[in-house]
Amino acid sequence: MQVALQLRLGEMKKLSLGTQTKYLTLGILKNLTICLPPPSLQKQFGQRVWEVRQIELRQAASRRQLDDLFQAMLHRAFNGEL
After folding, report:
1. Residue 2 has pLDDT above 90, yes or no
2. In whole angstroms, what is the distance from residue 34 CA to residue 60 CA?
3. How far is CA 2 from CA 8, 23, 34, in A?
4. Contact 16, 25 (CB under 8 A)
């Protein structure tokens, strides 16, 4: 919903009174139409987003582990242990 409103912000600014839109009036919002996908598709999209975020978390953990291993290797190399 937030993205849909952001995409239509320019249109809503033109409908508002004054030079800046600080507040949206009920009149502006009542006439605004926003297409929403069916709940099943919304749920499917939410599941995919969750899956992608889980992958991102695993990749971040892997990056931290690789960085730790690299730092340990550097330490050993500079101490002449390699």
Report:
1. no
2. 36
3. 10, 15, 11
4. yes
- How many angstroms separate the CA atoms of 78 and 43, rounded? 53
Pick the residue with more confidence: 80 or 19?
Answer: 80
Total residues found in the chain within this entry: 82
Are the beta carbons of 31 and 11 closer than 8 angstroms?
no
Q: What is the pTM of this model?
A: 0.57
Give the per-residue pLDDT at 20: 59
- Please report the DSSP string for the chain in residue order: -HHHHHHTHHHHHHHSSSSS-SS--HHHHHT-------HHHHHHHHHHHHHHHHHHHHHHHHHHHHHHHHHHHHHHHHTT--
Residue 12 pLDDT exceeds 90: no
Could you give the CA distance from residue 44 to residue 48 in angstroms, rounded to a whole number? 6
